Structures are given as C-alpha cells and as structure tokens.
Amino acid sequence: MNYHILTLFPQMVLDGLNTSIIGRAVEKQLISVEAVNIRDFSKDKHKHVDDAPYGGGAGMVMQPGPVCDAYEDLCTRLGRRPRVLYMTPQGKVFNQKIASELAMEEDLVFLCGHYEGIDERALEMIVTDYLSVGDYVLTGGELPAMVMIDCISRLVPGVLNNDESAEIESFYDNLLEYPQYTRPEVYEGRAVPEVLLSGHHKNIHEWRRRESIRRTLERRPDLLDGANLTKKERQFLEELMQAAKEGDEEPSEQLQHGLENGLGKLEES
Fold first, then answer.
1. 13 in a labelled binding site
2. Domains, the chain, ranges and CATH?
C-alpha cells in the first residue's frame, strides 16, 4: 500500500506517521508514505497557493493550479491516476467498512485542504471520494488523513503482529470489542472474570462474543442493525433488550432507540 498525501504541511503528516505500528510498517516496506508539498507547484514567486474568495467572504481559498499540478505530477510518476480522497466535513463519514475497501487499493492519494478549502474546479477535476471523520470542522485535512491512514494500514497484511487483531477489534462484524484485562488478577477489589482464567477457549470465545453484544447495545445500539449474529446470539440480545426495558433505570435516548428498532428487527427475523 502506497499513500500519497497532497498537503501544505508535509512535515506534520510525516512526523505523525513515523511512530508506533505505522512507523514500523514503513520500515518493513509493508506500506509507504509520501508527502507532496502543494506549495512546490506554485508559480507565484513567493510560493503563494491561496487567494481571496470570489463573491467575498472570510478567509482564503486554495487555488486550483498548484493542487492540480501536484496531482498530475504524481500521476506522471506513477503511470496511472489513483483514487483521490478529499478530506472534508461534507463527505461520507469514514468507517471500518470503507477502510476495508480502501485497503484493497495499491495507491491512495489524500488531498488535504486548508484555510477555507480548495477551489471547487480542482475538486471537480481530480477528486474521486469525499470523506469525513465526523460532523465537525478542523483547521486542515492533515489530521483526518492520518486517522484514515492509520486505520487502513492496520488491514494491510503483516502490519499487525497478530493478524487476528484486526478481526476482533471494535466495529469488526459491526460489534464493539469485548472488555480486556491483564495482571493483576484483582485490582482495588475488582477481579478479572473467572472465565478468562479457565483456559477453556470455547467458553472464553462465547463470553467475549456476549460481552461484545452487550457493550454494543449499551454504547452503540445503532450498529446492531448490521451485526452478523447467530440464532443463539440474537436470543441473547433479545433477552438483554427485554431486561433493559423492564429495569428500574430509565434507558438513555440512544439505548431506547436501539431497543425499539433492534427488538422490532428481531421479531421480524
């Protein structure tokens, strides 16, 4: 997997992706990260890449020329035109499913805007995907790009020491990850669940699946619509939802939504 980041702040992304798992993956040549400085393609003698917006308004807009020239130069070097992902709060919200799809690509280009964004003509000419990390505004696209690169890279074979890790973490199969424990066995009166000490792999697997279902219901019930559950697991989920409805505590608005929608789907299935 080769990442090409079009940015005004190349050192920012290189420093951010040069540590931990991603840094080691680069060293092992499992992935590569290239930061292309858009400013290098400015024809202005002062290397300006932005100007005031037509029609008025606050801030500055990145000009189309340097952005398109940076991409065309990259395409010439690669000999093809790879997908261009533009980081914008107007885009589709990035998730694990999108990460899995993008991990199949050989090259990915991340276009990072700044100031008030990029001239629309450049976006129309080169962008293939508009992606967001959430419904909020950041100063630039560099942080979202790093988030996505981190997530996608974990799905590249060999990047994780244990390839199973990517399959059992949160959002795999639309379920949140189960609780994790390590030594000591008892801390401040709180003990590790006995099943995890039993060495019985089947029981441990079943406990973890149940805890994943329980945690997803409590924290992200909206994910349950797409969860791939066995008949036994669906029955367990139905029991959890029924218990929550009959409990003394008033369920949160999010949980109530999950109870109403999830229980209805279970009854229909």
1. no
2. 2-154 (3.40.1280.10), 172-267 (1.10.1270.20)
